[in-house]
Amino acid sequence: MSIDESQVTAALAAVTDPELRRPLGELGMVGPVQTRRKRAAVQVALPVAHYPQVDLLVERVRAAVTAVPGVDEVTVDTTVMEEEPRARLRMLLRGEAVDGGTQHAADDGHGHGHDHGGPGQLGHEEGRPNRFMLPRSKTRILGISSGKGGVGKSSVTVNLAVSLARRGFDVGILDADVYGFSVPKMLGVTTDPLIIGDLVVPPTANGVRCLSMGYFVPDDTPVIWRGPMLHKALEQFLVDAYWGEPDYLLIDMPPGTGDVTLSLGQYLTKTEVYVVTTPQQAAERVAQRSAYAARKLKLAVRGVIENMSWFTGDDGTRYELFGAGGGAQLAGELGVPLLAQVPLVPALRQGGDDGIPTVSAEPDSEVAQVFDRLATSIVELGPARVYRKELSLS
Ligand SMILES: Nc1ncnc2c1ncn2[C@@H]1O[C@H](COP(=O)(O)OP(=O)(O)OP(=O)(O)O)[C@@H](O)[C@H]1O
Ligand SMILES: [Mg+2]
Q: Which end of the chain is more exposed for a tag (fewer CB within 10 A), N or C?
């Protein structure tokens, strides 16, 4: 039986690129196809040289083409896209970044659905379209906040994100802790963000996309972030980056009550805030201030996560090294649920240092189960009601 070349092309076009998570046909990555007797030779055009996850992509292509009737042998070649298709690809991705999806662009009732002309042309209040705030955006934004540093905010962010991703959600993390930048390392990201023209594609590790301020700041240069600079950087990371359409975008916020909260209050009003605290009473009071700051900005505080709640000794005894009750007390004062108590386990720290989140390394461990239950609770809480100016009576 001879091979039907059009079937090979169709199979190739339907393969999902692991990096951009869309079919190669849509991305313009399908190159020439040749067939001869039982052999098929296909070419994939990569958006840039040094494209991430090429091995996985080639494996997927090989599997898809092998499945075409009559094909016994497959060779997969990669080339780099010409300037023109790359520009088209960038437009496509940016189009999505601008209006949330080309297919449904016309039916959003906002009158800018067809315009893929880039930021600044869409008449958004801020002058920049913010797709996460479009009414049809399904993305829930989870701001992980804490009163002070070192309480485990980044560890919680990373493990919660991986837990959500493991159950099939599309998840991203924006590391907005300008003083910390710890998320890429904890998540195990080893590659830099992919840059296609002026578009940044956050790298993926453990099934989670991640973009960090740290990528754009030299290691040895202290940066003093002023409010407007921070606001601009956040805006760019939300708007000019290709996130696809995640179900959850977690934001690792800097500790305290500062400028990032202010920016989110202005720019991402649907951000749900989850406050991480330790069981100590003093920590609880500091955490409370950060929750009040969020509320003042009309962000919905949805729950409290207590971390380092106890350590279980070899004999099974629980030691409450940092006191007890802080999480429950804070939750009570804020009138929100205490969603989790995360024990102190050396594996969690080790996992953070090694870039292998415990939730993915030891999914059955006690602490992984705590994160799984936390993820379930957050899924079940559902999106927060968003305060909308146009709906207020005054
Ligand atoms: N439950 C836990 N068990 C063991 N170690 C933990 C736990 N939570 C956090 N750690 C460790 O404590 C340290 C601080 O945690 P992490 O970096 O997540 O906190 P943070 O609040 O993000 O801190 P920063 O303010 O520095 O960004 C890390 O070394 C981390 O691995
Ligand atoms: Mg941190």
A: C
Q: Let me know how long the chain is.
A: 394
**In sequence order, what are the beta bridge partners of 143?**
251, 273
- pLDDT tens track for 256-266: 777 888 888 88
CA 278 to centroid of ligand 1, rounded, Å: 11
**pLDDT, average across residues 216-229:** 73
Instruction: Tell me phi and psi for residue 349, to 5 degrees.
Output: -65, -45
Find the 100 Cα to ligand 1 centroid distance in Å: 35
**Which ligand 1 atom sits nearest the alpha carbon of residue 308?**
1
Write the pLDDT tens digit of every residue in 240-292: 899 988 999 999 998 877 788 888 888 888 999 999 999 998 888 888 988 98
Concatenated DSSP letters for 211-225?
Answer: EEGGGGS-TT-----
pLDDT tens string 136-185:
899 999 999 998 888 999 999 999 999 999 999 999 999 988 777 899 99
Q: What percent of the chain has pLDDT over 90?
A: 60
* C-alpha span between 185 and 187 (Å, rounded): 5
Phi, psi at 64, each rounded to 5°: -65, -40
Q: What are the beta bridge partners of residue 390? A: none
Q: What is the pLDDT of residues 346-390, one digit of tens each?
A: 999 999 999 999 999 999 999 999 999 999 999 999 998 765 555
Query: How remote is the CA of residue 48 from the centroid of ligand 2, in Å?
Result: 32
What's the pLDDT score for residue 103?
Answer: 42
| Ligand 1 nearest atom to the CA of residue 151, by list position | 21
102-107: long-range contacts, CB 8 A cutoff, minimum separation 24: 104/136
Ligand found nearest the CA of 357: 1
Distance (Å) from CA 179 to ligand 1 centroid: 14
Provide the edge-to-edge strand list for the sheet that holds 248-252. 204-205, 208-212, 171-175, 248-252, 140-146, 272-277, 300-307, 338-342
Cβ–Cβ under 8 Å, residues 292 and 330: no
Q: Whose CA is nearest to atom 5 of ligand 1?
A: 349
Question: Looking at ligand 1, which atom is closest to the CA of residue 155?
Answer: 18
pTM of the predicted protein model: 0.86
Confidence of residue 394 (pLDDT cuts 50, 70, 90): low
Cβ < 6 A, ligand 1 pocket: 146, 149-155, 177, 180, 182, 255, 307-308, 342, 344-345, 348-349, 352
